[in-house]
Model the fold of this input.
Amino acid sequence: MSKSTHDVSNEVVVRTIVRKRLTLRSLVREEKFLYVVSLVVFFTIWHLAATRGNGDSALVTPWATLQGLYDMMSSPLGGETLVGHTWNSLRRVLIGFSIAVCFGIPLGLLLGISETASAILRPLVDVFRPMPPLAWISLSILWFGIGEEPKIFIIFLASFIPSVLNAYNGVRLIEPELYDVVRVMGGSRWDEIKQVVVPASMPAISAGLQLSITSAWMGVLAAELVSSNSGLGYIIILGMQNSDPQMVLGGMVMIAAVAWVLTASMEKIDMMLCPWRREIKGL
Amino acid sequence: MEQSAASNAKIEVRNLTKKFGDLLVLDRINFNIKKGELVAIVGPTGCGKTTFLNCMSKLTDTTDGDIFIDGVPADPVKHNLAFVFQEPTALPWRTVAQNVVYGMEVKGVPEKERAERLEYILNLVGLKDTADLYPNQVSASMMQRIAVARAFAVNPDLLLMDEPYGQLDVKLRFYLEDELVKLWQTLNSTVLFITHNIEEAVYVAERILVLTPKPTKVRAEVIVDLPRPRNFLDPRFVEIRRQVTELIRWW
Ligand SMILES: Nc1ncnc2c1ncn2[C@@H]1O[C@H](COP(=O)(O)OP(=O)(O)OP(=O)(O)O)[C@@H](O)[C@H]1O
Ligand SMILES: [Mg+2]
Done:
C-alpha cells in the first residue's frame, strides 16, 4: 500500500512562537512592566506614609521592615531566630495538613463512590462544614492543653473539610461515559475506580489541596496568636506587646512570603498531578 | 442458567424488549448473526440502535428477552467485546497512545504483544505522529480514531460499532471502511456496524438489517452478496443501495 498515514490523517504537529516587537505602546501594555510599576507605586506610598509625622508612627518604612527581618533572623527572640519560628509554624501546618489530606481525600472519594457511605457520612460532613475551624480554638485548648496538639488539631480541621468536599465533588462530576469505556472492555469495579474515579477527580482534588493549604496556614497563625510561645503568630503577638511595629511587620512579611511559597508549591504539585491539563497551553 | 435454543449463531437476539418508563423502544426484536459475519444495522434516528448495543454490552438492563453470544448471555467480562461509541470517548488523562493501549491493559494482553499491536494500530489509523498528545489537543475526528484504534487493538471476537465514522471526513472514512473490511477478514471477527449512511452499509456489510421507527422491529433483511473490493458504480451495488433506500423511504 503506497498511501502514507500523512495523507490519510491530514494532521501534522506544529509548534510556533509569536514574536512581538518592542514599542512604547506595547511596553505600556506589557504585563510585566505594569506589574513592576504597580509595586513601585505601592512601596513609595508605604514609605511616604511611614515617614510622615515625627517618626513615632506605628508604621515603619519598607526599608526598616527589611532591617527588622534581618535582625530577627540573626538574633533570637524567645529562644529562636525568625527562621526557627517560621519552621515551627510550617512544621505544624505540614503535619496537620498531611493528616487531613491522608484521611480527607479517601473519605471524599468514598462518599462519591458509595451511596451508602454517602448516606451515612454526608450528614456529619454537612453539620461540621459551616463551622469555621477557628471556632474550635478554645475547645481544642481545653481538650489538648497548650502544646503542639491543639494547633495541629485546628490545622487538621481547617484542611480536612476542603479535602473531603473537593474529592467528593470531583467524583460526582465525572461524565458517566468514561465509566462505559472501562465497562465494555470487561473492566471490574476496581478498574473503574483505579482508571476513572481517581484520575478524573484529580483536578478537583488538587484544587482542594490548594484550598486546604491556604486555610491550614491561616489556621496555624490564628492558633499561635491565641496561645503559643513559638511560631510566626507568636512573633506578631510579641511585637504587639512590645509596641514594636518593625517586628509585627516583619512577621507579616514572612507570613506572606511563606503563603506565597506554599501556593507556588501547590501549583507545581497540581501540574504533576494533572499533566494533561497543562499541555494544552503549548498548542 | 439460561441457555440458547441451540444453533451455531454467534449472536442470538430473542424477543429483546426495552422500555424507558412507558416508552417502548425495542419491541420483541429477533435476529441471529452468524459467526464471522459483518452485519450493518440501519434505522431512523432515535429508533434504539444505541440502546440495542448498550443492552448487548450490559451498559443498560433489558426489559425482557435475551441476547446470547456463543450460546450464553452476553457479558463483557466473559466475551471479548469491543465497542466504538457514537460519541468519541477518550480518557482525558491518558495520551493518545495510552488511550489506544487501554483496552489491551484491561484484557491483560502481555506487555510485549501490547507494544507491537499498538505500533501497528497507530500506524493503521494515522495516529503515529500524535501518539503523545493528550485528547484535549486533538481534533474530534482524531478522538474517534482513538476509539476505533482502541477497539481494533484488542482483536475483538465481537466488534460493536455505533456510527463510528459519522464524524470523519470522506477520505478518512473510505480508508477506514477498507481497513475495517481487511481487519474483519484477517481476524475472523464478527462485526455489528451501525450507520446512517446507506452507501457505507452496502460497501462494508454482508447483510443489512433495516429497522422500523419506534417501537422498533426489524423491518427487513438485505443480503449483500457482492464480491470485494466493492465498486460504488457497479450496477448491482447501485441496485442494492436503491433497494435499501426504498425500505427506508417507508419511514
Ligand atoms: N436513558 C434513557 N432514558 C430515557 N429514554 C432514553 C434513554 N436512552 C435512550 N432513550 C430513548 O430511547 C430512544 C432510542 O434512543 P437511542 O439512542 O438508542 O436511538 P438511536 O437509534 O441510537 O438514535 P441515533 O440514530 O440518533 O443515534 C430515544 O427515543 C431516546 O429518547
Ligand atoms: Mg445512537
